[in-house]
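Quick one - inputs below.
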Amino acid sequence: MEIVGECIHIISPKVKNAMAKGDKGYIQELALRQAKAGAQVLELNIGPQKKAGPEVMEWMVDAIQEVVDLPLSLDTTNLAAMEAGLKRARKRAIVNSASAAPERLESMPPLAAKYNARLIALTMGKNIPPSAEARIEIAMETLMPRILEVGLSLEDVYFDPLILTVCGMQQYVMQGVETVRFLKQIAEPPPKTIVGLSNVSNGAPHEGRSLINRTYLVMLMAAGLDAAIADPLDPRLWEFIRLVEERDDSTPVGRLLLRLYDAVASMGELSPDDVDMSDPEQVAIYKTVQILENKVIYADSYLRV
Amino acid sequence: MAEKVEIPVQKWSGRVREVTLGATKEEGGTRTRSVTVGGEATLPFLHFEGELPHPPRIAIEIQDKKPEEWSPLLLKAWEEVIDDPAAWAKKAEERGADLILLRLSLDDAQGEENTPEKAKSTVRRVLAATGLPLLIFGPGQVDKDNELLVAVAEEAAGERVVLGVCEEKNYRTIVAAALAHGHLVDSRTPMDVNLAKQLIILIHDMGLPLDRILMDPSTGALGYGIEYGYSVMERLRLAALHGDTMTQQPILVTPGEEAWRAKEAKVEEGIPEAWGDWEERAIMWETMTATALIEAGADVMVMRHPESVRLVKEAIDKLWVKEG
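Output:
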C-alpha cells in the first residue's frame, strides 16, 4: 500500500494560514513529520489559487523540497500553478487530477505527459455517478482514450473511484469498493487505483474517523487498491495495513481483519460468527463494517448501540 | 382458467417497538383508554406478509389560544370552540381524533406571557374535558419549552403524555421531565436518517426506555418536499425491519402543520382560478399529504381539519383489511 500524505491541504486552517503568511516552517514541519511516519508521496493541495497560483505553488514545492526528498502529488485546478509545480518538482510528480469533465479532461493529461508525471484520473464527470458501472464506463470510454491519446502509458495513471461519506451518502460507500474491484479488471496489466480515504468519514466526529478510515481501507485493499491519499500521522492506520499485508494472524484483531479482507476479496461479507463479541475492539470493527456496508444506519454514536 | 399467483413474502428480522400513549385508571392515569402504536413486522398494510397489530392513529392538533396565524378555513372549522382548549379537545374527540395534541403558546389570549401556572391550568382542563391520550408540544423556543413542559409534566404525572419536541439542541430537560413523571417524548430531527437515529440514541442514553420514544423525522407537505420526508421514513422503517434497533420507533409526523403552511391550502388570494374551490383543495392538500405518509410508515399523524381527518380515517379503514 502506497500512502500519499494528505496533511498539506488548503482546507486545514493552519496550512491556509501558513500559506497566507509565507510561513515556511509549519509547512516544512508537516512535510517532515509525514515523511518520517512513512508517507511515500506528499500531497500538496493549494486549492484553486486564482490570484497567484504559480507563485504559491513554486513557494510550496521549494519549501517542501528543502526538507524532504519525496515525490509530490500536486492538487490544484489552476493549470498555470500545476505547470509551475511540475517544472519545479525534482522527483516524478503526480498530477491530481483529471476527470471526465471537459475542461480537466482537456488540460490535465497533456500536462502530465509533457512533464513525465503520473496522473490521477477521477472516474467522474461534472458529478459523481452513484453506481460502480457508471464510473467504470467513464474510466473506459472517456478517461482511457484520452490518456492514451496524449501519450501517457496506463502504468502512469492511478484511477480514483471517488469515495463518498458514510454520514450522508451511506448507500454508495460500497460502490467505491466495487469500482476499485472493476477497475483492476479493465486492462492488462491491471491499472493502478487510488482513493482519497478520509472522505469516507467526512462529517463524522473527529475521534471516530480513524476507525472508519482504516476499516474501510482494509475492504478497499481486498478489492485491489494500490494507493491511498490518507493521514500518515495515524499509527493505527499503518498497523491495519501491516496486519493485512503481512497476514499477521497472531492477534484476535489481526485474524478478524484477515477474515474481513478475505470475505471482501471473494465478494462475500464478514459474518457475526467471525467476531468475538466479548472483545470491544472486534465489536467496534464489526459495527464499523456494518455501517460501511449500509447494513445499519450510520449515527455519530453508532459504536454505542 | 385463472392462474394461481404466488405472492412473494419477505422475511424480516426486526420489528417496530410498541409504544403506548396515555394511561387509564388501572394504568395509573385518568384516560378512558390508552392507545398503542407500532409493533409492525412488515411494511404498511402488507397484512399477508407480517403482523401489523395497530393501525395508524390520528392526533388532532389544538392550541391553548386561538391560533390567529392559522388559515381562516381552520378557524372556521373549529369556530365555536377555538377560544377554549377544553371545549376544542372535546370537539376534536367527537370529530374522530384518536389522540389530542395540545400546543402551548408563548403568550396567552390577552397577549400576556404564558407561565407554568397557566400551562398547568390549561392541561388540567383539557385532561378533564377529554378521555383521549394527550401529546403536549411547547411553543418552540428553547427556554419557554423547558419552563412550560417541566411544569405540565408534573401536572399530568402518570398520564403517559408525549412531551415535545425534543431536538438535538434541546432535549435533556424535556427527557428529564418525562423520566421524572412517567411520560413519553417526541424525538424530532431535520429530514435525515442519520440524525433521526442519533437523537434516539442520545435520548435513550439518558435512561428513557425505548418504548417511551416516538421518532419524528419531520416531513414536508405535498409539493413541498414530501418526497424527501417519505424517503427518510421509508429508509428508517426498512432499517427497523432489518433489525437496526435504534430505528425501531413508531413514527410521528405532522402533515397538518405542513399542509396548511402551503399556499395551496392556506390562502385564497393570488391563486389561479383553475385551482378550483379553495376549501375543497385545502382539505385535499392535508388529506393527500397524510395519506402518502401513512404509506411511508407513519404511526401517529398530527392533523388539523376535521374533514381531512374523516377522509384519512376512511382511507385507513379501507386499507386495513386483513384477508384470509
